[in-house]
Design a protein that fits this description.
Blueprint: H1 6-14, H2 16-24, H3 26-46, H4 52-60, H5 64-79, H6 82-89, H7 96-117, H8 125-145, H9 147-157, H10 162-190, H11 195-208, H12 210-216, H13 232-237, H14 239-245, H15 247-260, H16 269-277, H17 283-309, H18 311-331, H19 336-363, H20 369-397, H21 400-421, H22 425-431
Helix pairs in contact: 1-2, 3-10, 3-11, 3-12, 4-5, 5-8, 5-20, 6-20, 7-8, 7-11, 7-12, 9-20, 10-11, 10-17, 10-19, 15-20, 15-21, 17-18, 17-19, 18-19, 18-21, 20-21
């Protein structure tokens, strides 16, 4: 059964010829999206804010603040340029050209990170740490800028069964990431520091070069609804009126911001387990493997649930798992807890990948998808930046248990708000 979103139903009524043309290239673009995301996920698997990068930074400094700075920069870089990325494609009938240019910039950032890692131990740790965070900021910035045009390209290309598409994409990228994690574990266990990082990051850079090639092969159908080009000031000035006049979208945005605080502990679980239970560094590789396996398996589950019952269900499942992982960290005083938590982390990653874009796709007017994506990620992003930094402060001032308890409370509040105040988009479609 083919399930379409509220936005595609609207486009089918207004521009049936456009939808017919998109359908002609559906399978071709579907496969290319999977291949492209698989090649890019190699970078994300190694540049993991939950495992590999915290381990790298822990060799350069022992201060927990800098561990929390990794996800903070990731979320800040992902959120801050979103509006700029949305602006770059506003008024355009196509998005592929913009996506390719930003993708090339991402590869440059990947190369810079790889080169910085090669300076270990040739440069003082403080200099390497500074250069790492500068290059990682550039990587995160380009990763954020590409978000709206890339998501809008998916939105205008994958026009039905989007939940399962994101589920399959998550599963395939998880399998690729699993292979990468096996390779990472082999390097971490077999080679001394910093040789394992030197080799690891060069391989990541080489594979990441495939991504722009796949993007160049996309077959994009020009969007039929032409909007006049807006100056940046005009483009930004519309945002307050959107938030005032669209209460359904506003409630979703508030709920998603609230849920963001529950992520404050995610970057600390693995390091807590290693310190608490005296586990080997190679455990990081095993934890990464569990994260990627659960991410792959649960991608199918979340995709099926989203297509069948709507994406609010997926969002609720994600928040519930944020609650459960903190609960497990507090309750189970055993090394096995880190693997249970790793399962939840992977499940949360795949749920986020399925629910976040699809909720916005169906809540936004079809011609405004990029702008709504930019608004969402820009406003949610600061919370995702602040939360892990707050987590580091809590660990410094109190302890890990306090961090897990506060994260659990935030998840509980987010679950209740989502349940009672966020509207499932399919209910809106039924009333139209």
């Amino acid at each position: 059964m083919k399930t379409t979103g509220r936005d595609i139903d609207s486009l089918t009524k207004k521009f049936p010829d456009y939808i017919d043309q998109v359908k002609q290239h559906y399978r071709w673009n579907y496969v290319l999206f999977i291949l492209e995301s698989s090649s890019f996920c190699v970078s994300l698997a190694i540049f993991s804010q939950d495992t590999i990068l915290p381990l790298l930074v822990s060799h350069l400094t022992q201060h927990p603040f800098f561990i929390g700075l990794i996800p903070a920069i990731n979320y800040l870089g992902f959120s801050f340029p979103q509006i700029l990325g949305a602006y770059l494609v506003q008024g355009r009938q196509t998005r592929k050209e913009v996506v390719i240019k930003i993708a090339i910039a991402q590869r440059v950032a990947t190369l810079l990170i790889t080169l910085v890692v090669q300076t270990i131990p040739r440069f003082p740790a403080s200099i390497t740490l500074l250069l790492f965070f500068l290059s990682y900021t550039l990587f995160s910035f380009t990763n954020g800028m590409i978000g709206p045009p890339y998501s809008d390209l998916i939105n205008k290309t994958i026009i039905y069964n989007r939940g399962m598409f994101f589920g399959i994409q998550t599963a395939v990228t998880g399998i690729v990431g699993f292979v990468v994690s096996l390779y990472a574990k082999f390097l971490l266990d077999s080679f001394p520091y910093p040789a394992h990082f030197h080799v690891m990051f060069w391989v990541v850079f080489g594979i990441s070069l495939l991504s722009p090639v796949f993007i160049s092969l996309f077959r994009e159908t020009p969007f039929p609804e032409i909007r006049p080009f807006e100056r940046l000031q005009t483009f930004l000035s519309v945002i307050p009126s959107i938030l005032r006049n669209d209460p359904v979208y506003r409630n979703y945005l508030v709920g998603r911001i609230l849920v963001g605080f529950a992520f404050m502990a995610n970057s600390f679980y693995a390091l807590f387990a290693i310190q608490q239970y005296d586990l080997s560094i190679g455990t990081i590789g095993l934890v990464t493997m569990v994260i990627l396996i659960s991410k792959s398996m649960m991608g199918f589950v979340w995709g099926w649930l989203g297509d069948r019952f709507g994406y609010k269900v997926v969002l609720l499942g994600m928040v519930l798992m944020l609650f459960l992982q903190a609960f497990v960290a507090l309750l189970i005083q055993s090394p096995i807890s880190i693997y249970i938590i790793a399962f939840f982390i992977g499940s949360i990653l795949s749920a986020t990948w399925v629910s976040d874009p699809n909720m916005v796709f169906e809540l936004a007017p079809p011609a405004e998808t990029g702008r709504y994506i930019g608004i969402t990620n820009t406003l949610v992003g600061p919370v995702m930046v602040f939360a892990p930094l707050l987590g580091g402060v809590i660990v410094d001032v109190f302890n890990y248990n306090a961090l897990f308890l506060i994260s659990m409370a935030a998840a509980g509040a987010g679950f209740l708000y989502t349940l009672f105040f966020i509207v499932e988009p399919r209910r809106l479609r039924q009333s139209e």
